[in-house]
Amino acid sequence: METGPVCMIDPSEVYRPDIPSSKAKGLFREFSVDKTDPIQMRVRETYMKMHTHQTVDYVTRKMAHWLRFDKFEATILEALEKLNDLVDEADPDTDVPNIVHAFQTAERIRQDFPDDDWFHLTGLIHDLGKVMAFYGEPQFSTVGDTFVVGCRVGDSVVYRDTTFHNNSDLADSRYNTENGMYQPGCGLDNVLISWGHDEYLYRVLKHNRCTIPEQGLAMIRFHSFYPWHTGGDYMHLCNEHDLRMLPWIRRFNKYDLYTKSDTMPDIPALMPYYQGLIDKYCPGKLKW
Questions:
Q1: How many Cβ atoms from other residues are within 10 Å of residue 49's Cβ?
Q2: 66-111 tens-digit pLDDT
Q3: How distant is the alpha carbon of residue 243 from its chain centre?
Q4: Which of 239, 108, 128 is nearest to 185 (CA)?
Q5: pLDDT tens, 129-151?
């Protein structure tokens, strides 16, 4: 039985952006069972559904459905504008539309890395895969932390001990050992991760031949994979490429997490700059 909040905070202080926020940094990613807090209850319910339904079979079916890239066509900005109407049900840190978080993240990266324009764009678009929520995908397979399916659940997965009891893979001997259906060192490119916006956007960008560097693509693909980049789980499945990308993902994570605040960016004023980056790296209408 859970007795208090489960805090998953990256222990490194080196790259944390020092920005004003109404929320102390030590309170980010606080997952509790406070029944008087409607956000915490919303978050827990989302994870309960996620940890019940996300299995090897479920992820395989979702990939077959979404990776046909036949759902709609839209530019990056058209997709981004949809996030005006999305509040992430798995995020305990903010209750504002996702487009605000996108510009908060991008602008803080731009301040600290002024010469790395691909990094600014990565910050802006990293959550764009959440557009699935507007095309029938439930939030429990759109948002939230991801985890590997097909092997033992990592120790640092949020609510690990109380939300997986109805997940059928846990009773399947093919999937409930440390390696499960994988070989050690096979590389994260060869494992199935619970379906969500990270993998979807990564695949959309690759399919549409976007030219963001591999570091940016790795940030997009794995930024919600907290049990790995922050919790240290699933390292036995990584190859050398994964380990080279890990410092970049951790660097990005500081901006994804600690830029969440109530400060609203001037989005119309910022649009021309980011349109230029979109035209450079991800031009035109993309197939989603």
A1: 18
A2: 999 999 999 999 999 988 887 665 555 555 677 888 999 999 999 9
A3: 18
A4: 239
A5: 999 999 999 999 999 999 999 99
